[in-house]
Amino acid sequence: MPSYTRVALVTGANKGIGFAIASDLCRQFSGDVVLTARDVERGRAAVQQLQAEGLSPRFHQLDIDDLQSIRALRDFLRKEYGGLNVLVNNAGIAFKIDDPTPFDVQAEMTLKTNFFATRNVCRELLPIVKPHGRVVNVSSLQGSKALENCSEDLQEKFRCKTLTEEDLVELMKKFVEDTKNEVHEREGWPNSAYGVSKLGVTVLSRILAQHLDEKRQADRILLNACCPGWVNTDMVGAHGSRTVEEGAETPVYLALLPPDATEPHGQLVRDKVVQNW
What we know:
One of its GO terms (cellular component) is cytoplasm. Pfam families: adh_short. It is found in: Cytoplasm. It comes from Physeter macrocephalus. With 277 residues, the chain is an alpha/beta fold. It has one domain (7-96, 108-140, 195-275): Rossmann fold. Helices cover 47% and strands 15% of the residues. The chain has an 8-stranded mixed β-sheet, sandwiched between helices. The longest helix is centred in the middle third of the chain and has 23 residues, at 103-125. The chain is globular. 44% of the residues are buried.
């Protein structure tokens, strides 16, 4: 068996929290760190910025909305590293509060990237995650808030421990469809596309962790969702109460859980503490 270098990968890492996570991993992770970005020029500029600080990340293009791009990355990781040790799914989008884009368009675009594309990354890359691997899906307490603002019927569905991945996908599709038909409020949905998308990520993380327990228990892979907090980024604007470095702390903590750790797993974590939701 060839002995491969360990590798950690961060999606959407050319700026904001993703950049801070990649920076921290370059300092703390024993192995290579691959910084990915949709835009090649911005990605390479981010790598150069870290190199100027004496760090040595690698760059690989990744547009999570493009399945071929995800698969090209998967093939690169297989060839270069024989798989993957740490995956941080950070890439995501959010519309500004005052954005004039119609709500149904916001819903479709936000869920396409934040939920469906993140799910695609997991589907393609989880099979190549090595034993004792760590998977971190950057979610948000906005997802928990969205859940609280759902109807009791929807809350029950999302909290149900036997909810399948297929059931979850159908719920996410229904939200988008209901916004198009202008019945989402009547159907029990909140008025936050971002919140619903992150609720989907949190619930997906619980379901994927269950899959890992069923199919790969001996591999001791830990998969969690996390909330970085209200961070001062392009996405939030200058309203955030935390720096990107502070926002990176919990994702990096989960990415670097020691090999003998058994928890947290399938949880939503904020400030390194498991959240009830």
